[in-house]
Amino acid sequence: MKVGFIGAGKAGFSLGKYFADGGITVTGYYSLHENSARAAAEFTGSQFFGELSDLLKESGVIFLTVPDGAVSSVYGELCKFDIKGKQICHCSGVMTAAAAFPGISRRGAFGYSIHPLFPISDKTESYRKMAGAFFCIEGSFEHLDEWKSVLEGLGFHVQMIDGKDKPKYHAACAISSNLFCALADESIELLTQCGFTRETALTALSPLIRQNTENILRYGPTNALTGAVERNDIQTVEKHLSCFSTDNERELYRAVSQRLIRIAKEKNPQNDYSELEKLLTGGI
Ligand SMILES: NC(=O)c1ccc[n+]([C@@H]2O[C@H](COP(=O)([O-])OP(=O)(O)OC[C@H]3O[C@@H](n4cnc5c(N)ncnc54)[C@H](OP(=O)(O)O)[C@@H]3O)[C@@H](O)[C@H]2O)c1
């Protein structure tokens, strides 16, 4: 397997370095800007390519580690050449291989989406922490099992996914990462209304966030759940609902707490949460 990269950004640098260290031949990099591609080539001990056609000639597998919005146009550029027999991969969490690479089988090539379920925040450091990450993959059946073996051989976990489920899969990832940022931000804002600075709010919340995250990961969300909703404490929830200054914030609290009731019912099937449910759905 000889792998070339188009797009010398965070994913390109990190996957290339991880692959090269794992014994896979990385041919080199082509990128929008020559200096990025040269830096990635140096980092991974591979070549800089100034022409797409040269990268294509040298590589059996081409990773398009460009922003999601650029995948189609870069694929269009590749299709100006003969791509027969090549494997073309992208790393988008939401796009399918078929949508990204239309007509690929007619060209005798194979398309894959190979999504690392991992936050790659730094070009040169993130790869060090990637071992054990999950990769979610789908695409042409011809080499799919081979990809599973290759990635597992590199120390990753692999989950095959049906292309039609990718938006749902990506929404799940966003909830656990991006949406959590929104909840943390809301929490910090409420504390600033109580006299905290944003910095002290974050410091004060740190043990709560850390321990709660640890409990969720160790015991699962049901066993980790504590608080007013789980205790069926209607008065406290009423007080919470009265303190928001915008409908938006109140709706956020209501929507998330309704999901908490579902978990609380599972945890405490003997409790009757119907009054609390009415309060949270606006019935009271
Ligand atoms: N970062 C993550 O945490 C993460 C995690 C999972 C999946 N992914 C996926 O990985 C892919 C890349 O994301 P990223 O975070 O690595 O983005 P990034 O750091 O912004 O890197 C993208 C690179 O693509 C290059 N590029 C842009 N347009 C191009 C074009 N038309 N032709 C050639 N190169 C082009 C840019 O190169 P120059 O530097 O030369 O301008 C840039 O360095 C995306 O599909 C993303 O969804 C990212």
Describe what is shown at a glance.
The chain is α/β, with parallel strands linked by helices and 284 residues long. Helices cover 51% and strands 14% of the residues.
Would you write up a description of this structure?
By secondary structure, the protein is an alpha/beta fold. It folds into 2 domains: 2-162, Rossmann fold; 175-280. It is built from 14 helices and 8 strands. The protein has helices at residues 10-21, 34-44, 52-58, 71-78, 97-100, 144-153, 166-176, 178-192, 198-219, 221-224, 228-231, 234-242, 247-267, 274-280; strands at residues 2-6, 25-30, 47-48, 61-64, 87-90, 110-117, 134-139, 157-160. Helix 8 (178-192) crosses helix 9 (198-219). The protein starts with a strand and ends with a helix. The model has no long low-confidence stretch (mean pLDDT 96). NADP nicotinamide-adenine-dinucleotide phosphate binds next to helix 1 and strand 6.
Report low-confidence residues grouped into runs of 5 or more. Answer: none
- Proportion of residues in extended strands: 5-15%
Average pLDDT level: 96
Our count of helices gives 14
Helix content: 40-55%
What is the oligomer described by this structure?
single chain
- What is the H/E order? EHEHEHEHEHEEHEHHHHHHHH
Tally of discrete structural domains: 2
Question: Can you count the beta strands?
Answer: 8
- CATH architecture identity of the largest domain: 3-Layer(aba) Sandwich
Shape type: elongated
Largest sheet: 8 strands, mixed
Bound chemical compounds: NADP nicotinamide-adenine-dinucleotide phosphate
What is the CATH level 1 assignment of the largest domain?
A: Alpha Beta
Under CATH, the topology of the largest domain can be stated as: Rossmann fold
Strand order of the largest sheet: 3-2-1-4-5-6-7-8
Radius of gyration in whole Å, from Cα?
Answer: 24 Å
Query: CATH H level of the largest domain: which superfamily?
Result: NAD(P)-binding Rossmann-like Domain
Strand-pairing-aware structural class = alpha/beta
